Amino acid sequence: MQRITMLWFQGKSVQLAQYSFQLLLRNLSASKTALPVLTLFTKDTCPLCDEAKEVLEPYKNRFILQEVDITLPENSVWYERYKFDIPVFHLNGQFLMMHRVNISKLEKQLQKLEQQGAGG
């Protein structure tokens, strides 16, 4: 079995790790299965957004959370659209929910994407 040796510096010590080539390949191929992107449209001082992020915590390994601050000048289109509705969520660029996290809706859409990603 081929082995890969890696050296890296951590603080003042040198760390050494060996990985089997098969394990490395398995991890690389698993990382090709991209996680869906859950976009949170938010702004500073948004208690509902903070609450939503807490509700999402148990699901965080199933998506990449991308936060968009709608008050930034480059996000003015989103500000005009969502200024009275945050938090708003899009999943892979498609509107999903607003105001509060709907766990059953999120779960249904994540399962659908996961089945598609698994070839089902």
TrEMBL record:
<dbReference type="Pfam" id="PF05768">
    <property type="entry name" value="Glrx-like"/>
</dbReference>
<protein>
    <recommendedName>
        <fullName>Glutaredoxin-like protein</fullName>
    </recommendedName>
</protein>
<dbReference type="InterPro" id="IPR008554">
    <property type="entry name" value="Glutaredoxin-like"/>
</dbReference>
<comment type="similarity">
    <text>Belongs to the glutaredoxin family.</text>
</comment>
<keyword id="KW-0813">Transport</keyword>
<dbReference type="InterPro" id="IPR052565">
    <property type="entry name" value="Glutaredoxin-like_YDR286C"/>
</dbReference>
<dbReference type="InterPro" id="IPR036249">
    <property type="entry name" value="Thioredoxin-like_sf"/>
</dbReference>
<keyword id="KW-0249">Electron transport</keyword>
